[in-house]
Request: fold
Amino acid sequence: MPKPGNHDIKQQREKLTITITAATSPEATKNQMKSMDAKEMVQIYQEAINEQFVERHTPKLHGVNKLSNNAYRFHCESKEDPRLLEEMDWNSVFRGATVHRRKYGIVIHGVPKED
Reply:
């Protein structure tokens, strides 16, 4: 059986992540989030997750990557966790924080974005 390539591994990892954006958050919130280290941020979000998922499976976070444009990629324990976390009220943790949604699902070369 062939070994999985880097692309396959990356796709598997992406299934375990959810990206949160603070793009619409007030500047004070953006600055607060930027100043936090990864461990502290995961702890704050995990506590909020634990509060919001009391009655059912509680998603678990393993880490976070700070991305550009006030976005943060959280790494989850299982494939169902990111789907569950899409339902969460992220604004309750940091004002203005929301799940990042891709603007474009596909790329067709030679076709303007406006079309």
Notes: The chain has one domain: 9-99. The CA atoms of residues 22 and 61 lie 18 Å apart. The chain has a mean pLDDT of 86.
